[in-house]
Amino acid sequence: MLPFELAEPTSLAAAVKLLDPDDATVRPIAGGTALMLMMKAGVFRPQKLISLRKIEAEYSSIAAGPGGLRIGAMTTLSALERSADVMAHAPIITRTLLTLSNVRVRNVATVGGALAHGDPHMDLPPVLMALGATMTVTGPTGVRTLAVEELFSGYYETVLEKNELISNVQIPSQGARKGAYMKVTTGSADDWPALGVAAIIEADGKTIRSASLVASAATEKATRLKSAEAMLNGKSVTDDLLRQVGDAAAADAEFIADIRGSAPYKRELMRVYVRRAVRAALDGGGAH
After folding, report:
1. What is the DSSP letter of 150?
2. Containing domain of residue 215, as a range?
3. Tens digits of per-residue pLDDT, 188-231?
4. What's the CATH code of the domain at 33?
5. How many CB atoms lie within 10 A of CB 31?
6. 81 with 163, same domain?
7. How many domains does the chain have?
């Protein structure tokens, strides 16, 4: 790697001031699990990195309230995994983290970094989208609230300005809603997926009151499957209905080919795993 300058501000406000929206070689770094790989590969050559490790402790904390969770953006994925509050309010997150990369990565990677990087293969963003999570984004002119669903604009692209940082993530309590996250990997269970599907279902027995379905990895960004959702809402689940829902999801999504599979292969995965994710959610949830 080429030499670079490292700044270590002790407050979020100071970190924002150090970011230069006109200089692409100045970047923030949280856990650094993705950024360091890019630097080692020569894909990114920064002149200056703004480390967020020393900013206020509140941005590395998990707080539970009546309506759900507030997660600081610098909270590590392993802290989420071990949190009793997360298990109580959003058990789908706890289950998903069991196969999210490996322990070494989870000990370092952060919630904010997993979102801001914009990688469509990440497991956490589709789950947060399905839960209806929002973010607090801090910039030089103040703060704004953004739904996680609105964050991603393309392949490795987000709507964040270059001088904005995610400061907190707000996650509504899962409550009586049932959830499942399923992923297909060509390697080990913790590998990057060829497809990920998150399903959050509010149901009365086998009748679905509302459904939130999100796909990732097979698409250029985490994507709501709105046509498939609409077909489920208010319906009693049958095998025939789930086949139609899988077909709708496969028809709506735009698939990308990569080393994990061709677009036709991923389209067929979508048909199968949307059905399985809905079934898994209704049966009590799971992450596979």
Report:
1. G
2. 178-287
3. 777 889 999 999 999 998 799 999 999 999 999 999 999 999 99
4. 3.30.43.10
5. 23
6. yes
7. 3
